Each structure stands twice: as structure tokens, then as C-alpha cells.
Amino acid sequence: MKLLITGGAGFIGANFILYWMNHHPDDSIVNFDKLTYAGNLENLKTLEGNSRYTFVKGDITDGSCVDRAMDGVDTIVHFAAESHVDRSITEPAPFVTTNIIGTQVLLNAAVKHKVKRFHHVSTDEVFGSLELHSKEKFNEQTRYDPRSPYAASKAGSDHLVHAYFVTYGLPVTITNCSNNFGPYQFPEKFIPLAITNIIEGKKVPVYGDGLYVRDWLYVEDHCRAIELVLQSGKAGETYCVGGLSDDISNIGVIKKITHMMGKDESVIEFVKDRPGHDRRYAIDWSKIRRELGWKPEYDFDSWLEKTIVWYKENKAWWKHVKTGEYQTYYKQQYG
Ligand code: NAD
Ligand code: TYD
Fold it and tell me: 158 with 123: CB under 8 angstroms?
């Protein structure tokens, strides 16, 4: 099988390519990526020279480039996106361009090339925000209620993907997953930012009261979920994917990290809140468990420990990332 992975130089895409190359030795992969600030080919340097792997530098909004890259492709896994909520608040336009228009360009090409599966990687943020302390969770029936430009652009892309199934019969699947963490995550996102700041002896910025709740999913568990959806998921269906973090607040996450890294809580620095900050996310992943047999492999603490070890052992990777454009962004965001 030949797969086209969009956004494969980013965090989840790179983890997925490494996972797939390991577990599917007969398949080949084309990684199609624009290499924005978030795309980093260092994530995939172990694949250099591998005849089953090809990299194409391209923009998913560029129809002719996408068309060429799709030649002979059976399956598309679409990760490419502008993915950071804070950046979408500062500058929404690239989110609309890449996440909505880019997805539509890919869908058109997928219809033309008669691909056997178009899998769209989306987020739980399309469902909006849950009340703190409620028992409610997002599931496949939850009404869309996006509240940030990022979430709205991902919601738009989800609707387009579903529309191409209904209108053109394109065999699509969608996963809406919760916050991922793990190796190769760009250190502007909360967990890698916290770990790397602590290693560097810096404070960890916590927005508002820090009582915001995310559902934390280890990236390899997410890769296995996508694998199962590609293998046994039903065309036209959506699957919600979440972790085992059990309603932990951002402060709770930082306390775990400081404890695991042998530091005290003086590293926490409360900073101005994010506008429109969603209070709580939680995912009911019973459909994918029931229908495809998926569940997270370990609990949150075990994966968090492993993630801390990875960042400790891969200082060169993140020190390189934490330079240049990232520094400009960091100053603008936190002063
Ligand atoms: P990321 O920002 O780390 O990587 C995105 C990748 O897409 C980068 O390599 C970038 O260069 C590429 N890209 C951006 N614009 C492009 C364009 N126009 N054309 C081609 N390539 C382009 O993102 P991530 O965290 O790996 O997220 C991957 C996907 O998963 C996204 O669709 C995101 O919405 C979704 N998702 C992420 C999370 C999370 O916690 N990270 C949670 C839920 C859903
Ligand atoms: P983030 O990793 O940006 O993911 P998302 O906004 O997609 O959930 O943020 C996770 C949570 O951590 C969110 O509640 C915002 C909070 N946060 C901070 O408190 N400080 C920070 O510096 C960042 C980046 C996030």
C-alpha cells in the first residue's frame, strides 16, 4: 500500500510515519509537508535513504503539487494544519487557508485519484467547552460548537470531509482526538514547554487560574487508533479518541511534572489568560473501543514519565527548535 501523509514533518505526523514504517514493512509513504515553523525534518532523519519513504515539500493549497503527489496513492492520512490555538488568536488567516481551503484541495484531488481511504485527523476542540466538574464528555454525537479560530477552521474542514463522503462517495473517516503529548512535540504546546523550561531553569507560564482541564492522549496511542481506523473503520464514520488523564487541571499536570523532575512548585508562574479559553475537554472513546478494540496502552503518569525522559535525552532536538522564529513568537506571547 502507498500512503500519502500530509503534515508528516510535524509532531503527530512524524510519530505516525515512524510508527507506520516500523509496523508495515511492505508499505511506502510519501510525506507531503510545507515545512512551516512547526515542520521539522529532523524528526524523520532515521528514514533518510529509506527507499520506502519519500519527502515532498509542498503546500496543500497548491492543487497541481497535490495532484502530482497523489499519483498511485491508495490511502491519505491528513495531518497538515495550522495547529496552535494561541497563534490562531493572534493571526487567524493562515488557519482558514490551510485548514479549510487546503483540506478542500486535498479532497478534490482524492476524488479525482479515486483513493481508497481519506482519513482526516481532527480535534475535540470542534465540540467547544465543557463545564468544570461536570460528568459530561464529548462523543461522536456532540453538536459542533467551536470557540477559537483554530477550532472553527478544523470544524469547517470536518464538515467538508463529511460532505465529500455524502456528495461524491469519497471513502472518508475522521478521528476527533484530545490533546496529544509525547516525543517531537513543538515546545510551544503546554507539556513540552513546561518540561523544556524546567530543564532550562525557567518558569512555566500557566494561563489564568490554571484550572483548565484537558484530556491527555499519548501520541503513540493516537497512532494506533488511526491505524485501526484505517484497517477496520467504516467509511463515513467519525471516531473520538482520548486518553486516561481523568480530568486533571493544568496545575495538576505541572505539579506532576515538577514532582517527576525533582523540582518544587516555585517554577509555576501565573500569566494573563488566553481569550475565549475553553474550560474543559473530556472524550468518551467507547465507540472506538467497542467497534475497533482500541484503548490507551498505559496510564497518563507512565506516558508522562516517558515523555520527560525523551526531552531529557533529546536536548539537541528541542534546543535547536527553541531558536529563531520560535524565540520571536515566545517574546510576543509571554513578553
Ligand atoms: P503540528 O503543528 O506539529 O504539525 C503540522 C504540520 O503540518 C507541520 O509539519 C507543518 O509544516 C505542516 N503544514 C502546515 N501547513 C501546511 C500546508 N499548508 N501544507 C502542507 N503542510 C503544512 O501539528 P500536530 O500537533 O502534529 O497536529 C497534527 C494534526 O492533528 C492537525 O490536523 C491538528 O489539528 C490535529 N490535532 C492535534 C492535536 C494535538 O494535541 N497536537 C490534538 C487534536 C488534533
Ligand atoms: P495547548 O498545549 O496550547 O493546547 P490546547 O490549547 O489545544 O488545549 O494548551 C493546553 C492547555 O494549557 C490549555 O488549557 C492552555 C494551557 N497553557 C498554559 O496554561 N500555558 C501555556 O504556556 C500554554 C502554551 C498553554
Answer: no
80 C-alpha vs ligand 1 centroid, how far in Å? 5
pTM for the predicted model, two decimal places:
0.97
Look at residues 95, 47, 316, 31 and name the one whose alpha carbon lies nearest to residue 184: 316
Q: How far is the CA of 210 from the centre of ligand 2 (A)?
A: 10
In sign, the C-alpha dihedral spanning 194, 198, 200, 203 is positive
List of domains in the chain: 2-182+216-243+282-299 (3.40.50.720)
- Distance of alpha carbon 131 from alpha carbon 280, whole angstroms: 6
Ligand 2 close to Cβ of residue 31 (< 6 A): no
Q: Closest ligand 2 atom to the C-alpha of 212?
A: 14
- Alpha-carbon span 133 to 120, nearest angstrom: 31
State pLDDT tens for residues 145-182: 999 999 999 999 999 999 999 999 999 999 999 999 99
Amino acid at 100: I
Pairing status of strand 213-214 against strand 248-249: antiparallel
Q: How far apart are CA 335 and CA 333, in angstroms?
A: 6
pLDDT in tens, 276-296: 999 999 999 999 999 999 999
Q: The cell 487508533 sits on which residue?
A: 225
